């Protein structure tokens, strides 16, 4: 079973009882959802085991590493481990780009299927999925840009920077770029709350605009045609 089947499984879902939350799933789609949850759990466990494996492989290298000059930050790595660190950074960037492309693909699939769905409950689920996808895409893009700056600065310090010959301002500027990861992690909850507040305001304004729209006469027909056109173009 593919991920696309899990995504499209909501399209023709029929609920036995009314539901007011998008966390509920149609009975005929629960097996696909359970399979998707199991797949995501397996991916998280595999990633965690990979991190633990990398830690134990490089623990001896870091413990016995010899630095050319004294350092006061744990972001520095010993010279005999820098090639592996550069390879790991490149691998993480490739995985992040692949995941971001996958999220964008799922977003456009939801957006295309949204106008084909007739059930009101399923349309609400697709609308919530689109909102969540926009949040994930925005955060993933910002995180990718931050990690790209971190990776370039880290590779520069590992490959070409010489603390004994290079100037101090160049070193400090690259160290500031490396600390962007910590700053982004600190600002992530604030960014998420601002996005959710904006999404809530947008939803409320759309509801108010729909309530105030006239539904009779020539103006009502014009409003209906406009909404129908927007639905087919979304």
From TrEMBL:
InterPro entries: 7TM_GPCR_serpentine_rcpt_Srab, 7TM_GPCR_serpentine_rcpt_Srb. One of its GO terms (biological process) is sensory perception of chemical stimulus. The keyword Transmembrane helix applies. It is found in: Membrane. Keywords: Membrane, Transmembrane, Transmembrane helix. It holds the Pfam family 7TM_GPCR_Srab. GO terms for molecular function: transmembrane signaling receptor activity. The chain crosses the membrane at residues 35-57, 85-109, 135-156, 176-196. It is a multi-pass membrane protein. The keyword Transmembrane helix applies. GO terms for cellular component: membrane. Its main location: membrane. Belongs to the nematode receptor-like protein srb family. This is Uncharacterized protein.
